[in-house]
Write a structure and sequence with these properties.
The chain contains five helices and no strands. The protein is mostly helical and 164 residues long. The longest helix has 51 residues.
Length: 164
């Protein structure tokens, strides 16, 4: 529902304004036009759609800030994550590697939290989730560490089933 008004508010506004204009024309033709009433009717309508437009702009700014921040954090750990994912499956994780993984798990959980709250678009979440699944499936060491961590319930309700 959160994204519904972002996509439809302009169309809805045009329909409302068109209907009001049709009523305005009809009342004018019957000689019952009073501009005071129409200023009182159209003013709040235009104010409402201006509010929706301002809200959309603010949400785009917020999303852009989140998106850039998440991607920057991911870019800073991507090389290390790929090294861990490509590492020998028999060798246990080193402390530095688990630190990188914990940072990554926290990033994923934050992305999930903001997605759940409606601040991350579904198509963006799907792309991020595909990346998470890739790391989870590519390395048993990562999958095992992630599964253990998720048992602690410290990742904003991020469900392990999403990774399968």
């Amino acid at each position: 529902m959160r994204y519904c008004h972002l996509r439809t508010y302009f169309k809805l506004g045009l329909v409302v304004v068109a209907c009001l204009l049709l009523i305005l024309i009809a009342t004018s033709l019957k000689g019952r036009f009073r501009w005071e009433i129409w200023v009182g009717v159209l003013g709040p309508v235009f104010s409402f759609f201006y509010f929706l437009h301002s809200q959309m702009i603010e949400e785009v700014r917020w999303f852009t800030k989140l998106f850039r921040g998440f991607n920057l954090r991911y870019d800073q750990m991507n090389e290390k994550l790929n090294e861990i994912a490509g590492g020998d499956e028999v060798v246990p994780l080193k402390p530095g590697e688990t630190d990188v993984l914990y940072d990554y798990f926290n990033l994923c959980a934050e992305e999930y939290l903001y997605y759940q709250r409606g601040f991350v678009l579904p198509e963006v979440w799907k792309a991020w989730l595909a990346g998470m699944r890739d790391f989870y499936k590519r390395s048993n060491r990562i999958a095992k560490c992630w599964s253990e961590e998720l048992k602690s319930s410290s990742y904003y309700g991020f469900p392990e089933r999403m990774l399968h």
